Amino acid sequence: MKTIKGPAIFLAQYMGDEPPFNDYRTAAEWAGGLGFKGLQIPTWDGNAIDLDKAAESKTYCDDYRGQMAQYGVEPTELSTHLQGQLVAVHPAYDELFDGFAPEAVRGNSAARTEWAVDQLMKSMKASQNLGLPSTVTFSGALAWPYFYPWPQRPAGLVEEAFAELGRRWTPILNYADECGIDLCYEIHPGEDLHDGATWERFLEEVKGHSRANILYDPSHFVLQALDYLAFIDLYHERIKMFHVKDAELETDGRVGVYGGYLPWGERAGRFRSLGDGETDFTSIFTKLAKYDFEGWAVLEWECAYKDNLVGAAEGAQFITDHIIEVAKHSFDDFAASGIDQAMNRRLLGLE
Fold first, then answer.
1. Distance between CA 73 and CA 53 in Å, rounded?
2. Domains observed in the chain
């Protein structure tokens, strides 16, 4: 078994225009001061990383690592959530998702997709230059507007949506393989890959590609009433990344899992700061240790109530307390009687 690395924190919900979050160096100092050891980097934010330089220059990446190391932290993975979303966008969301792309490609879905794919390729090369084994993204969604079948979906609609996802992502996955990088999809509502069944469908379309893997975030399964522990049992071989994020689902006679179009604080399903929700993290960390997960435990802060700075400070300690330092030997080794092949055969009645 392997000990999970951490704690780390995803900077997407923290980077901004005000110090210390307007520069990755001061953000690293802040995170290191809280006890974090790693930073997951949002590549769309130029204050967090210069993706073009990182993809072009090993020297830039070595310097980037070195500056973080001054504060006792290191980059854990690069994130292209926003760019990955733009690989596949249903026209109903075109205007909303245009905000994720630069001005030059807005209003032009083909150009926007081309830009997004280029961003994914750069993230793979940058990950290689940084010495990182994996990167995280979203799958995008073509079928999501039809997730509840009313009116009834026409035959073949979902199949064609996933076939198209496979066509779009296979070249990207092939490039990931050239770079030696695992591409991890965050399984997430709003994406066509939002549960185990959709993951299996996608994996079939990319012909079981070895570089197609999973970022596991139990909070999105809590909100779907999906068994997030059984998910680990089913897909642990593909789980290469881990967001530690809490949630709760408290349905009543008024609101269920769909949320009634209410704001987050009034929905039945809510993201919470670590320890404030209902997620069984003790069992999650135990299962990941059992299955030799060797990645990072990365805090992603999203909470309907608590301030993000408080959530970060509490989250660093929460993750530290839940990481299992795996045993180096069996607890009953003291009673071992040694290895004796001849004795073993006698005990089995074979001699």
1. 21
2. 5-347 (3.20.20.150)
